[in-house]
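Morning F.,

Quick status update on the modeling queue. The single chain you submitted on Monday has been processed. Sequence for confirmation:
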Amino acid sequence: MSEIQISTLGLVLSIIPVTLHGIEVLFPMQARLIVNWVLPFFGFKAPNGETALTKDEQLTMLDAALNASPKEKFTNAKDYIFLLIFEQRQGAIGFIAVAIGAIYGIGLELAARQPLHLLFGVVAVLMMLVNANQAGFLPFFGKHPKVSKHGKNVGIIFTPFWLVVALLNWLAFSYVMS
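Structure tokens below.
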């Protein structure tokens, strides 16, 4: 594979997350659709409309979390729920920015792609570490207190994916350095 093909593949693979998460910038509650229609595959099951969460059920769950908070801390609990959903939107913004940068970068010469490969390489390494952590491979790298079985399987499957993306981007980055 040529240097430009490795670079292009590193950029193209960096686009993949936006295909699922990009819409969440406008509709952060759409994460429910990933839970309903994508994550079952990580449990080696087909999605099931009868077990799919509805928007009303999702809101009821968030209300239950608020109602479980101590009354004197209700404002902080509301802010916490707000922040979770706001960060969902911010994550989607990051994925959109990466996708736009990658699409733009594909049209550039190899040397001009170097900053993108540095950025996407860092993103891929951190995504790999987070996925490895939730898979149980790196217990020292933070703590997600509510990793589900499907979430663990996502980590198992996407750790090597992000390793490949990291290697491609670091390799493409290094071409210009030599």
